[in-house]
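Researcher: I'd like a structural prediction for the single chain below. Treat it as a standalone chain; there are no partners to consider.
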Amino acid sequence: MPKETNRSHQSRAPALRVVLPPQLEGRQNALTAPNPKIIRPLRRLPPEVLSDAEVCALMRACGRYSPTGMRNRALIALLYRTGLRINEALSLCPKDLELTDGSIRVLHGKGGRSRTVGLDPGAAAIIERWLDARSRLGLNGRHPVFCTLRGPPMADAYVRVMLKRLAARAGIDKRVHAHGLRHTHAAQLRAEGVDIAIISRQLGHASITTTARYLDHLAPRAVIEAMRQRHWMEA
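Model: Treating it as a single chain, here is the predicted structure.
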């Protein structure tokens, strides 16, 4: 009689296991995982500051009389003249605006910090026109300042596409985006000689050191002025 094979014993035989060194283990997991994601480094483009004429062209491209045009003009004016981050601007409620005395309360700033920023009368007048149009649409204090014509909040993705479209219509070759308007505000304040402590508070930076690095990255005035002092004539 043939000798019976012990199959249960065979099934308990240990399987071979390949042990990879720690530096290769993560790579092996990434390669064998279903649909592995390729992680590419983020490309950070240098900031491009707009001129006052370019911002005005951008606002003209919105149109003046339609509710959508008035809203978009008001949003651009706010971003340009206050330097608010896009999420800070889109979180504003009507009660946060004190346009008569030129102040705006930012209750949902970066890091959960709140602050009050200043606004000039010219920008306040543009925002006031949108508030009037907004009221005629039946929108009230429960709706964000910058909302759709039916009341829901605007999405930052819409603003991104909108600014790109308006820049093309206005013939602006620079990259135009919400944070670029913040860059422009900061660069203009520095060019106007505003104290760095005030710029820091307006932008909502955690420290003046952060603001100094921010401004030097946008417009390295010391470098520019040093080069402008040099004299050279073509022979």
